[in-house]
């Protein structure tokens, strides 16, 4: 049965999983939560930031593989992961086109960090007017708004994008070409990423280990999972590979699953986990456990990634912001995978975008700021297997269990039949012994041994002739 699964679960035309891999049927939801700062003036004077979480603003995420083509004689397949988003008012707290969020002016911080150390450029940016914080609609923060500072900068630098948004150009777009292993040669390679944008290694970080592209893209996992194995996932959003370990057994719609979660070591400091030293491009990029500065792949912007509310991070990061409350239930990232098929039955991908706030020489508005990792937004990308897919998986698991346990059924049936045979033999032996040992009466013995009887008592007692036995049948005697 396992050999059959290995052959069926491959990324080739006609396999059981190919169509669902290209167009996943379960609905995916993307929730966005923003942190609205309520004491801007105090923060500019050096006070502790106070934030209020606002959300969710929920979107239905439609994802499919585009431009799918087989390569390397069918051992690999190339595709683009295209995503589009549709707003769901009934699952949201408000209207993203109306609701205003006060947060960090990310374009302003990107420009200030770009020109810091250059007196003349800093002077020019100050003259253009740069603000530390800004008021924007949720829709603008997500999908883009025209920024006045970027527009002024683009006048002398045409390559500078004048529009900024956290999800700008991500609606209806893709992350570049992926090449995956189909799993034909080895089921353990099913869904594994071979190259991204034509490269098998990243170039953002300082070590080969940090630049490695390992595992899948999070949409497919090999069958016959083991609790002891570590799952690797390459995520372009973080510009790196992360990993997950087994946590516990769970059930989703009657389907057994293994829950895998990222341990603390994934975003640990280089002191806790020396393997992460390569993610420190400079000493300033090493911010501590629970954080990853992704500025090398974000055009130098001081963007810092973490889990929501600094979950699994050092306590000092959550304590530095009034309004942070890390909770495992609400902020943990996890994958629930059926171990037999490797199918995702439930998942929650949670990540937070932060900005490093600190004093920047040449910009007076930042002179009183304390160095702080300021939370801007966190997202929760969730999926749960739909009822039709769950029914198909349950049917497949039932067949798998029946076939896998068929030898046990045969052995069990043989044992039962052997026991029945032994009981019958013992019973027959006892009956035979009872017949042999049972005492007989004189009359019974006579009737059993012969069909004849004496003619009369007189003849029997005749002294001259002795005892005479007449050959007279029983019937005649009775007559």
TrEMBL record:
One GO term (biological process): receptor-mediated endocytosis
Q: What's the name of the protein?
A: Scavenger receptor class B, member 2a
GO cellular-component term (any): lysosome
What residue ranges are annotated as transmembrane? Answer: 406-426
Q: Where in the cell is it found?
A: Membrane
Q: Into which family does the record put it?
A: Belongs to the CD36 family.
Please give the organism.
Answer: Cynoglossus semilaevis
Q: What are this entry's molecular-function GO terms?
A: scavenger receptor activity
UniProt-listed Pfam families:
CD36 (PF01130)
Is Hydrolase given among the entry's keywords? Answer: no
Keywords from the named record: Glycoprotein, Membrane, Transmembrane, Transmembrane helix
Question: Where does the protein principally reside?
Answer: membrane
